Amino acid sequence: MEVTGIFSALIIGIVIGALGRLVLPGRQHIPIWLTVVIGIIAAFIGTGIAAGLGVAETRGIDWIELIIQVVLAAAGVALAAAAYHRRHAG
Questions:
Q1: Closest Cα partner for 76 from 16, 7, 26, 11?
Q2: Do the beta carbons of residue 70 and residue 16 sit within 8 Å?
Q3: Could you tell me the mean pLDDT of each successive run of 10 residues in the chain, 90 residues long?
Q4: Could you tell me if 73 and 20 are in contact, meaning their C-beta atoms sit under 8 angstroms apart?
Q5: N or C: which end of the chain has fewer CB within 10 A?
Q6: What residues have CB less than 8 Å from 88, skipping those under 6 apart?
Q7: Torsion of Cα atoms, 39 then 37 then 52 then 4, to 10°
Q8: Could you give the CA distance from residue 43 to residue 50 in angstroms, rounded to a whole number?
């Protein structure tokens, strides 16, 4: 993977992870780096799901793919927040 690919993955991870956090109610007590990692993973998995459904390549903005990615990121953030809270609650 080239430097531009890594940079793009980080930017996409930040955006998808942030959108995933925004759609969840309340505050999630997880580090920002974990949100970015979840966003990157959600972007890759969401792209795969969209490709499997045949909606990954459309004209203009791929709204269905974006929705899939954000839903996956929200689920990932919710799971991570619950696990992180249990681990640090003592």
A1: 16
A2: yes
A3: 76 92 89 92 90 83 89 95 76
A4: yes
A5: C
A6: 29
A7: 90
A8: 10
Per-residue pLDDT tens over the stretch 35-61? 999 999 999 899 889 889 988 777 887
Token digits of residue 46: 């969401």
Q: Looking at this protein, which amino acid is placed at residue 31?
A: P
Query: Structural domain tally of the chain?
Result: 1
- Residue 55 CA to residue 52 CA, distance in Å, equals 8
Within the chain, how many helices (H) and strands (E) appear? 3, 0
Are the CB atoms for 13 and 37 separated by under 8 Å? yes
Contact 58, 35 (CB under 8 A): no
Please name the residue that has the structure tokens 């890759």: 44
